[in-house]
Amino acid sequence: MSAFVDAVDRARAALTERAVDVPSPTLASRLAALRSEGLAAFDERGLPTRRDERWKGTNPARLSGLTFDRVGPAGAIDEAILDDPRVADFGADLLFVDGRIVRSGATRADLPAGVRVLSLLEAATEIPELVAEKLGTLVDPKTDAMAALNAGLFEDVAVVALDPNTRPGRVLRILSLATGTNEGPSACFARLLLIAGKGSEGMVVFEHATVGDAPGFTSVVSEFHLAENAKIVGAEIQSGSAGRVQISQTRASLERDARFASHVLCLSEGLVRSEVDASMKATGGMAGLYGLFLGQGDAHHDHFTTVEHAAPHCESDEEYRGVLADRASGVFRGRVIVRPDAQKTDARQSNPNLLLSEGASIDTKPQLEIYADDVKASHGSTIGQLDEDALFFLRARGLDEATARGVLTRGFAQTFVDALFDESARALVAERLEEALARLEVTLENAPEEPDA
Prior knowledge:
alpha/beta; 2 domains; ten-stranded mixed beta sheet
């Protein structure tokens, strides 16, 4: 038995004590079934291995050797955590600490009627039937061990529900913090459930980070249900310490004429596995998947995306950009599946990557699986270094080597930031990215100087 599985066995023994006691029998029954099915599926499947096609690019040995001493908060929440600058600056509607929602903005006056941002306990009072119907239906624990583990051990859920034809009028923000203590590594399991009614529109920013070094394990599962003509943007910011393993799994289901855009910014210093799947179930859907991952040190970023065209006259656009320095490694696996009935599909996929050191590496494999004959589709991937002519141009105008490299790297990353249409979300992403690029400056400054022309 691996150290990780042994830690899971200890965690499940304490699950009953941590479980939220919801007042709705219907939702309580759904939660019990989901947790039971999740643990049973994890016991059956076990941890991923290299034989699992979805994990070909990542060695799961680091995961199996990981241990944690607790799941969820260590007793009462440390009030100092609530004074963390990220909490104040982020302005979260919901705040997770180690997988438990400790601050809710569900009663905020600036949310119009028909827009709800709720913890699990609040949702159990206000919309229990809707949550029971939707929770856990897009992520199948029987086919994915890590989804099964989250289903078995999650404690709380951030629920965002938009009634038909409603708009929040601003970005909704959810922050999840993982903490470390002297007791040892921790594990936290968080979930987001977004239910968008017919004709509704909104944007959610979901950031998960660690406080201090905080070694351990983080699992995040997000489900997006988009009804007819709904338009939803989900932006996810992933950051974490070098000693933390993070797995994020996002699933989106689109009905007729729905539009979904996912923006993933990955800045973790440890091992990250990020999955985004979007399925267009009816005609007229549009899915946009956009990502930027920046790895340095010994970071490993694994991004696995799937876009399913299951109906005709749907469109998808995908671009993931990678920036890797030091000994960091990256993986991109992008699948576009066009089902037999999905005629008149228009699908685009791109994965440009920038390697800033000889020790950095990227394993990229964009894939098209087309089972229809009236399709327009393209895909491609590039791997390169900073353009020498551009470097020469900047240095000829007085910039030193490190500054010139920094300018070009920022320019490569800026495309991702510019794709965010909301000004406040764009400013937040730009701030987080700039913090990471500033840390990267050390790498750029240590790069060998090119001889002067």
